[in-house]
From TrEMBL:
Keyword Nucleus: no
Family indicated by similarity: Belongs to the FlgD family.
Domain FlgD/Vpr Ig-like: start-end pairs: 107-172
Name of the protein this chain belongs to: Basal-body rod modification protein FlgD
InterPro entries to which the protein is assigned, alphabetical: FlgD, FlgD/Vpr_Ig-like, FLgD_Tudor
Functional note: Required for flagellar hook formation. May act as a scaffolding protein.
Signal peptide: none
Amino acid sequence: MILNPVGSTATVHEGPSANASNDPAAMQDRFLKLLVAQLNNQDPMNPLDNAQMTTQMAQINTVTGIQTLNLTMQTMAEQFATMQQIQGISMIGRSVLTEGDRLAVSDQGEGSGAFELAGAATDVKVEVVTPGGLVVDTLALGAQDKGRHDFQWDASKYSGDTSDLRFRVTASSKDSAVAATPLMQSQVVATGSANGQFTLTLGGGETVNYANVRGVL
């Protein structure tokens, strides 16, 4: 930083050592020392104008204010990330809903899943299918309102491998189709972070951002 008002016979340079710290308080202290040196060395016949001094004071206050704000925001972001990780530990062992079509089947032989309708539908159908697309069973759910809906399916009668079963949802209202988003139920087995985002590792091996979780069961 150079302070050199018009008519002044002294120029004060901030040395390399003064730039070593970006601490707002240190910057303001250096600025005040430079300003005092400038005032002491100004031309008595052409003193520093009050408006010019006010402008310089406002500039340093703006710079230090922005740096203080940046430091505060950085500290808040670090605290928030720590709180997320602590809260995330409580998610381990719980079940969440994320976008996907894998059917969850319990040890008691009950299959479950969910879906979200973009609008009200007069006819909703859920098909349980194998990975190859073979229909195992069909659930007729009738009319459903807009929003999220759960369903259950008795998997005890199915003799095949239930771990790979999928489901698909078809919804319509009169003569038009209604968009349906399948939601799969998964258990959280671990938590972590990636690119500054809080993540969940699910029982099926997927890793999803916590922001993409549609519901906690």
